[in-house]
Amino acid sequence: MRYSPRMDDAVDRMMEQWRTVRPELDPSPMGVFGRISRLNRLLEKHINSYFGLFGLEFWEFDMLATLRRAGDDGELTAGALLKASMVTSGAITNRIDRLERKGLVERRQDPADRRSVRVSLTAEGGRLIDEMMAGHFANENRVLEALEDPAVLAGELRKLLISLGDTSLG
């Protein structure tokens, strides 16, 4: 469905309901918060359908992409993966285990620090993430075709993220 300026979305209808039952309140912030929340769910569904073509879930793609962005060796410490993923240490261990069983990552003890574990892409993991990226970016571009200027939205979202303290990967 293409966007039409005369169309209302579900958030418009919710805000109108609030205006009716509580006219003294201004529900306009819901226009941003509600849309971001609903958009997140819809985008995840759309993007997950692409990842499913490769037998991956979002978190698996995210970990492989994080390792690939680390450079040609595709290697990070488990601690760096933990910071990038914002999950618990138990969850990151479980995720590494699952990707290792799939043959997409491998772990080894860090020779410089025996207490640290290094996680790297296997040849198969590197091949898979490289194969996926062009299609992933094309998929995201198709979603953004409804916007006149995606860069304007990206800039506004950047301001909001920075104002809330999101300035680094870890």
Give me the secondary-structure topology:
Blueprint: H1 10-21, H2 29-52, H3 58-69, E1 75-77, H4 78-85, H5 89-101, E2 105-110, E3 113-121, H6 123-144, H7 150-163
Antiparallel strand pairs: 1-3, 2-3
Helix pairs in contact: 2-6, 3-6, 4-5
Question: Could you provide a short overview of the structure?
Answer:
The chain is mainly α. It has helices at residues 10-21, 29-52, 58-69, 78-85, 89-101, 123-144, 150-163, and strands at residues 75-77, 105-110, 113-121. Helix 2 packs across helix 6.
Summed up, the helix count is: 7
Q: How far apart are the first and last residues' alpha carbons, in Å?
A: 37 Å
Largest sheet: 3 strands, antiparallel
Structural class: mainly alpha
Strand order of the largest sheet: 1-3-2
Share in helix: 55-70%
Shape: elongated
Mean pLDDT: 90
The run of helices and strands is: HHHEHHEEHH
The portion of residues forming beta strands comes to 5-15%
Uncertain spans? none
Radius of gyration: 20 Å
Number of strands: 3
Keywords: DNA-binding, Transcription, Transcription regulation
Protein name: MarR family transcriptional regulator
Organism: Actinocorallia longicatena
InterPro entries: HTH_MarR-typ (IPR000835), Tscrpt_reg_MarR-type_CS (IPR023187), WH-like_DNA-bd_sf (IPR036388), WH_DNA-bd_sf (IPR036390)
